[in-house]
Amino acid sequence: MDPELEAFIALFPPAKLDDPITERVNFAKLATSVPKPDTSAMTVEDRTVPGDPDVAIRVYRPHEAQGAIIWMHGGGWVMGDLETEHPWAARLAEGSGAVVISVDYRLAPENPFPAALDDVYTVLNWAAENAAELGVTPDRIAIGGHSAGGGLAAATALRARDEQGPSIRFQLLNQPGLDDRQETWSARSFTDTPWMNRDKVSAMWRHYLAGQPASSPYAAPARATDLSGLPPAYVATAEFCPNRDEDIDYAVRLLRSGVPVELHQWSGTFHGSQAILTADVSRRQLTELGVALRRALAE
């Protein structure tokens, strides 16, 4: 493991998700320990997207933005909100120059699949219809997220393709949760890794899917049999992450389906370790997310 990351492992909370309410509080406390981002070069606005139900969003709008991204926080579909994602959404907006639309999707287990996906799809449609107000064009809207949020982004891309929904320019998938079956080597073997391990992943999927196997590729994108016609993707994986192999497999399957993919496997990292901003590898990870998005929206 990267020695700059290893020094912080003891400060991370135990990797478990048995009590969602308690873990949400712990997750929020962890988020407040991250240095606050500089938002002086952008406007930040909380809004509500009309829907059934309405969806809260936070819009980060840098000056002279070239495009937009619908962005979903991590937290295993169980934790996280606009506040916990604020440090990362703001840094993504700064690094990419894109409008970042952070989505406060409904959480499991109170709202299992497809609630979160429906919320994201509502926001995608709203963004496409209101692109001019956001200062972008409808053909320059990307989708992405961390962890569970990355899984939601991949699922939304599948749904938009199948339903002839809004055009999605690009997928920015950072350590996404894609496969509820947990049959890969990394999913089976990483039982004691920091922050995320096999048991915690099992609990995440159990809460999200109400204890049932995924009924649709929109719930677990790795179950999709056809990945053709999807938007180009950037996929980032962490070496000591249970999601690692399913993410690499998904990236390779996208490539074989004719979808342009950039895949970066970050050596010495663990799931969510980019939150440790004092580590050089974390800063490089966050910078690359912004650069990849900027390039995709400018092409």
TrEMBL record:
Q: Name one Pfam family in it.
A: Abhydrolase_3
Alpha/beta hydrolase fold-3 domain location, by residue? 69-273
Q: Which UniProt keywords apply?
A: Hydrolase
Q: Name one GO molecular function term.
A: hydrolase activity
* Bilayer-crossing regions: none
Protein name, as recorded: Esterase
